[in-house]
Write a structure and sequence with these properties.
Layout: E1 5-10, E2 27-31, H1 34-41, H2 52-57, E3 61-63, E4 72-78, E5 82-90, E6 95-104, H3 106-114, E7 118-120
Parallel strand pairs: 2-6
Antiparallel strand pairs: 1-2, 3-4, 3-7, 4-5, 5-6
Length: 123
């Protein structure tokens, strides 16, 4: 595994009952470049970077983006805003990593719930 990543949270096996892919990884990683990605693409979300491990540990919703290629899933945590993180599988190295973090509107959250893309995560 490369040295540009570090473990950010344990993978919760309960996620598998909500996902079409049964992941077997123990950990979810974050790259050192994620902060730069957030600064560039989603600067309003920088304050939420420090909450990534708690979003993974206690998400409110879980789902899969049907437009995303490869094995991945999304977690949403409701703070004062709805924060969504995308987690992907690095197929070559066989590890899960946080690919992005951004906010979603209440309307987008409701739409995801109503169309079945997002499901309430039972903690």
């Amino acid at each position: 595994m490369n040295n540009k990543i570090f473990p950010i949270a344990s993978y919760n096996e309960k996620f598998n009952k909500y996902l079409p892919v049964q992941f077997k990884q123990d950990l979810i990683y974050q790259s050192f470049g994620l902060e730069k990605h957030i600064e560039k693409r989603h600067p309003e979300c920088l304050p939420y970077l420090r909450f990534i491990s708690s979003i993974i540990s206690e998400p409110d919703y879980i789902g899969v983006n049907p437009n995303e290629s490869g094995d991945s899933f999304e977690l949403v945590k409701i703070f004062s805003e709805n924060v969504q993180i995308g987690i992907k599988l690095d197929v070559k190295e066989n590890y899960l990593y946080v690919a992005t973090l951004h906010t979603i509107t209440d309307g987008k959250l409701r739409h995801g719930i109503n169309n079945g893309r997002l499901k309430k995560f039972d903690k």
